[in-house]
Design goal:
259 residues; 4-stranded mixed β-sheet
Length: 259
């Protein structure tokens, strides 16, 4: 696992995160079970790991807690199981970030992969025409930013390894599922082929034109250092990720956004 500046680890046996004394976090992780996400899979009766992923929201250094509360900023960590769900990789439910009371709009999310390999899939909207669709494949130490209002999900790209990531989001985060569920998931379903590689199948509920598969890029418009872990960047400049809470103050950066 990459050095994050937090020292948080994950216990596979208990499905719980372990925090050093300098770090706060929830006593017990929230867990998403197979039954919770089958409606977003191509095969609604597929089998897979019973606990698909574990989530600890509101994690950080104890000395930063008051500042994080004041900024309405929240850091979360998530651990995905290895394996597959039928022929599909382990993934989250597709959703859109709900409107935040802090800025009266949907908010972005900044991912940093800590262990394994992830694909952050995103599309501009969850209507019949999903707009542009991207699958961003990220290795440990790489970052991906999902912009406000886009439908998205996070995928463990490996059958044989778990995947962990940390993410910045707004404190009053919420998820909207209705449009995605009405379309039986997102516009493209990831599946494993006979060689264990991920390929994509169109969801016929959408009128999607194409899917762009790409690597992460550097987010120079947000002055994010491509090397230093994102929590450490916050400790050096507490205003660094204020754009997550107030995306309305940088609307020009979301126009024609490419992840």
């Amino acid at each position: 696992m990459i050095e994050t500046g937090l020292g948080v680890t994950f216990n596979d046996a208990t499905h719980e995160f372990v925090y050093p004394p300098t770090v706060f976090g929830p006593t017990h992780a929230e867990q998403r079970h197979l039954k919770d996400i089958l409606h977003s899979m191509a095969d609604h009766e597929a089998s897979g790991p019973e606990i698909v992923y574990s989530i600890a929201m509101d994690v950080g250094l104890r000395r930063d807690r008051s500042d994080l509360l004041e900024r309405e900023l929240l850091f979360g960590v998530v651990a995905y199981a290895k394996g597959s769900i039928g022929q599909e990789p382990v993934k989250s439910q597709g959703h859109i970030h709900a409107v935040s009371k802090t800025c009266q709009m949907s908010t972005p999310e900044v991912y940093e992969i800590w262990w394994g390999e992830a694909i952050v899939y995103m599309q501009e909207r969850a209507t019949d025409d999903p707009g542009r669709c991207y699958a961003v494949r990220a290795q440990a130490g790489e970052r991906v930013i999902v912009p406000p209002g886009w439908a998205h999900c996070t995928i463990n790209a490996s059958r044989t390894e778990p995947m962990l990531f940390g993410a910045w989001c707004v404190r009053d985060f919420g998820f909207e599922y209705d449009e995605v569920r009405a379309h039986k998931g997102l516009a493209f379903y990831p599946t494993f082929d006979d060689h264990g590689a991920i390929v994509w199948e169109r969801n016929p509920s959408y009128q999607a034109e194409s899917l762009v598969e790409k690597a992460p890029r550097e987010y120079v418009e947000f002055a994010i250092d491509p090397i230093q872990p994102i929590y450490q960047q916050y400790t050096q400049d507490h205003a660094m990720f204020d754009f997550v809470v107030r995306p309305d103050l940088c609307t020009e950066k979301w126009l024609d956004y490419v992840p």
